[in-house]
Amino acid sequence: MKKHIEVVGGIFIRKGKVLASMRGESKYAYVAHKYEFVGGKIEAGETPEQALTRELCEEMGAKIEVISHYMTVTHEYPDFIVTLQTYLCRFLSDFQVLEHERADFLRGDELDENNWAPADAPIVRKLKSELADSKDMR
After folding, report:
1. Taking the CA atoms of the chain, what radius of gyration do you get in angstroms?
2. Are the C-beta atoms of 126 and 48 separated by less than 8 Å?
3. Which of 33-61 are b and which e, b meaning 16 or more Cβ less than 10 Å from the residue's Cβ?
4. Domain Nudix hydrolase, which positions (predicted)?
5. In degrees, to the nearest 5, what angle opens at C-alpha 52 toward C-alphas 46 and 57?
6. What pLDDT digit, counting tens, does each position of 58-110 carry?
7. Rounded Cα gap, residues 12 and 18, in angstroms
8. Does residue 86 contact residue 70 with C-beta atoms inside 8 Å?
């Protein structure tokens, strides 16, 4: 039986652009050098919102506000199953790229789901559609 991991990701939209953080090397080739929503594992006793706040502090040195749940996806990778809960968030401070290769704010037409970790792709499709429908989504 595959290990099931519960993770959380933050969606940050600034001036119609979505924050995309690129992973570095990974023992799992299918997610190496792919974009993802910044976040990480939910630890025992944490709510998803608490995990997201902690992860953003660790990974970007940032203070954030979690605004609302956006979408949950369960994806089966070759080595494990992941349930990814995403939340719309906003930064309350500046941030730094501490654990990723890079972080970019991408326009909707730059969101190519093939450049994202497979678990994130359905969320990217939904965001891309909503950004196309609303030039003012924040």
Report:
1. 14
2. no
3. ebbbbbbbebeeebebbebbbbbbeebbe
4. 2-138
5. 110
6. 999 999 999 999 999 999 999 999 999 999 999 999 999 988 899 999 998 89
7. 6
8. yes
If 0-12 CB within 10 Å is exposed, 13-18 middle and 19+ buried, where does residue 122 land? middle
* Cα–Cα distance, 72 to 95 (Å, whole number): 25
- CATH class in words for 3-132: alpha beta
Domain ranges of the chain: 3-132
Mean pLDDT of the chain: 92
Measured in whole angstroms, how far is the alpha carbon of residue 95 from the centre of its chain?
15
In single-letter form, the type of residue at position 106 comes to: L
The amino acid at residue 130 is: E
- Long-range interactions of 105-111: CB distance < 8 A, separation 24+: 105/12, 105/14, 105/15, 105/17, 105/18, 105/19, 105/20, 106/17, 106/18, 106/20, 107/16, 107/17, 107/131, 108/16, 108/18, 108/132, 111/18, 111/20
